[in-house]
Amino acid sequence: MDVNQEIQNLKNKIRELNREYYELNESSAPDYEYDQLIRQLRKLENEHPELLTADSPTQLVGGTAESMFSPVRHEVPLESLNDVFSYDDLEMFISRTKTALGKAAFFTVEPKIDGLSVAIEYIGGRLHLGATRGDGLVGEDVTENLRTIDSLPKIIKNAPWRLIVRGEVYMSRETFIRLNEEREIKGEKLFANPRNAAAGSVRQLDSRIAKERRLDIIIFNLQYTDGEPFSSHAASLEALSEMGFPVVTHKLCESYEDCRRQIISIGENRESFPFDIDGAVIKLDSIADRTFLGSTSKAPRWAAAYKYPPEEKETVVEDILVNVGRTGVLTPKAVVAPVRLAGTRVTNASLHNQDIIDKLDVRIGDTVVIRKAGEIIPEIIGVNRSLRKTGAEPYKIPNRCPECGSAVLKDPDGPSLRCTGLECPAQLLRNIVHFASRDAMDIEGLGISVSEALIRQGLIKGPADLYYLDKDSVSALDRMGEKSAQNLITAIEKSKDNGLARLLCAFGIRQVGQKAAKTLSRHYPNLDALSEAKQEDLTAVPDIGPITADFIVSWLNSPQSKHQIKLLREAGVSFDSREEISDTRFNGKSFVLTGTLGGMTRGEASAMIEKFGGKVSSSVSKKTSYVIAGEAAGSKLTKAQELGLKVLSEEEFLALLS
Ligand SMILES: [Zn+2]
Q1: Cα(426) to centroid(ligand 1), Å
Q2: What pLDDT shows up at residue 583?
Q3: Same domain, 362 and 274
Q4: For position 225, which CATH number holds?
Q5: How far is the C-alpha of 451 from the C-alpha of 454, rounded, in Å?
Q6: Which of 78, 271, 308, 529 places its Cα 20 to 30 Å from the Cα of 652?
Q7: What is the Cα–Cα distance from 545 to 516, expressed in whole angstroms?
Q8: The domain containing residue 595 runs over which residues?
Q9: Number of domains, the chain
Q10: Catalytic-role residue among 11, 13, 103, 112
Q11: Residue 603 has what pLDDT?
Q12: Does the annotation mark 534 as catalytic?
């Protein structure tokens, strides 16, 4: 590899890790590996300065991914708050504050938004700088990404010359659900919750991606102004609201009782906010009093964050239903007798998977305890066994897909059960998008929205139906003109000749991605040869393990797959390998194995025969080219001798292979 290529490879690797880190807020490589890559790249660039470019990751980073954004020192620190976990603690906080002040005081009570805290500075009424909280003293410059937030004013009229506000960037629950749905269709990793999604989006290197994520913001504090000072927090929020900022809802309360009532009300109405909350904030309203009390090294003395305890209630499981997701995962859900919990009427609870059901031993008719903490759907955390009705049976998720009746297989690396049906209506959109994707059949113009439209119009019920579309019905689709319809039909037609590797990848068989598909198509001349392979034949192919082999065999033998394959064949889609089959010395020859071989398993022997283009059959006939007879060969050998076929010993077979 030449130096230029080596540098390019390092850059690509580093950029990929950066992208993971900023987009998903996680990294597949440990920090030291990342540092190692950076160091290596730097060394090469030092040795070959002519190859150093301005966009090299070494020019953008100070060693770690952490500092891909310029640091911003916060003029006013972004402090964190002391938490209180009970109303007793809250009462103590309020009385302590009043004692320290030696007088009565007002507090504001606000919802605590579960997002990413930022400070935004305006100069001359224009958005100048936006930064993440970081450690409270130094954050990251994310100005360009914050500019993509529609609700954040970019220009303010009648503003003081300099103004710094603090707010919480969030992703609305609605946007979050849609974003995850899209990611699921594209086969991308899902975000765990709106907070992670918002944090990952604010720290995007490409602000176009941040824009697509449709973030929102709520301003909850005036950090600094060189204009007329405000006497109270509430007055400053009103003024910010008049300047056009979306400010947090806040209520002035005087007594502990008032505060408590307001906190309860926020908790009960939490579903009416578009964002998730992780508590309520109680702040002293008078700015002079705040200054007087000051802060400890950890947090201000004039504010506290009340954390809602997760709410729990007892109810009865009336039924257990199984939902099939877009990726085919079967998710059980308990239908429960309606109960009010954390401000909402709850009628069902998540049961996640069979392992959880077994662990809790939840049965239909059981009285259970459900809890709602941060998540959108509450979960069952326990069963009241003393109330179990006689005759209640342990619950098992059905082993057939409730949507399409296909066999269900367990994920090798987790507890999920998955429907394997290529024609499963629940998975259709994802299957079509995957079938057409770049690594698979690479059908240009067949993205999510066109696939959705085709499905909605009932034009496709499986991938093979794509090859039966006619131009007129496609051009009648929403926002589809004559020309794009023709282009799509042409692209679909062209994909017929892609060959076995792409087709296999497009089928979306578990564990068979681009790489495994290629490997398989180097060992089997066409789909029919692969379809005849048994589990043990497949495991003899390099990189194909027993679990993958099982997935392939069961997939190829499922009625839905067979139906789709038949339709693809009739449409003229090529099943032939485009990969070079390394050696075809056994082309057209058929082999029968009998008895026990000393040096290899039958599977290995079969794989060798198939690798060289031969066919392995289980019964002897006149068409059999060779019978390989091992130790204790039985009736097959006798029959071969009767028919006068060529019988090979293991040694003779090995000689043919060498
Ligand atoms: Zn299904």
Answers
A1: 6
A2: 66
A3: no
A4: 3.30.470.30
A5: 5
A6: 529
A7: 11
A8: 584-658
A9: 5
A10: 112
A11: 86
A12: no
